[in-house]
Design a protein that fits this description.
2 helices, two-stranded antiparallel sheet, alpha+beta, 2 domains
Amino acid sequence: MRSQRSNTATRLRRHCAALFGVAESDMLCAELRKEKFRMRIGWIENGPGCGSYSSIDVELLHKDFSGSYDIKSAFLN
């Protein structure tokens, strides 16, 4: 299981710029990645400077994301 997770992570890092439709330069710095993708991967603001990640309200899990989890569009991407 650990090797499969590692292989998937490596493939995603190599091709994520194309998957997300962003420039390769956006992927070079951790701060840029965090700022650019935070909302797309489920970040929810809980207050100034505070927040957490949602496990279901995630744009990447939905074909046509409307801002919240929809069982009809989840995992069809």
